[in-house]
Specification:
The chain has helices at 12-27, 33-47, 83-91, 143-159, and strands spanning 53-60, 63-71, 77-79, 95-97, 115-123, 126-135. By secondary structure, the protein is an alpha+beta fold. It has a six-stranded antiparallel sheet with strand order 3-2-1-6-5-4, with helices on both faces. The structure holds methionine sulfoxide (SME). Methionine sulfoxide binds next to α3 and β6. Residues 49-156 form the GAF domain.
Length: 165
Amino acid sequence: MFELNNVEYESKEAFYDNILLFAKGLMHEERDIIANLANISALLYHTMEEINWVGFYRYNNKELVLGPFQGKPACIRIQVGKGVCGTAAYTGETQVVPNVHEFSGHIPCDGDTNSEIVVPMVHQGQLMGVLDIDSPVLARFDEVDRMYLNELVALIMDQCAWEDM
Ligand code: SME
């Protein structure tokens, strides 16, 4: 049983170090993509402060399709190159957006969202999807989030059976 709530961390780095350990534990000896993405979205949603949506879009038939997530129902299909998610997918670069209302082409799914981070998921040079996290707080995400969420996605990429996708 995982105890997730009511833990105080002395720094964002300490928080993420612990999350990476939790994530390793959750995915231990499990390679099923849906199961692992579902658990990781729940882990992040219930531990990260000041977020309103966290989830995955999978790359399928040349577009991004909604995958496991936590939060309000969201738009299902996103074209590569469109919105923050599609931009991360197209560029292969993590997008840290301090104010989504100033991001040209941002796709509003939850009206509470003010800032967002999207990490591309790449396996052996091929796009598999993106991890998307939304916050109601402006400039919620910074370079520490970028670094650790990139590390988390690298762990997910190592751990899941992408060849089954
Ligand atoms: N805002 C995203 C769309 C996905 S939702 O935030 C869940 C975007 O612009 O790509």
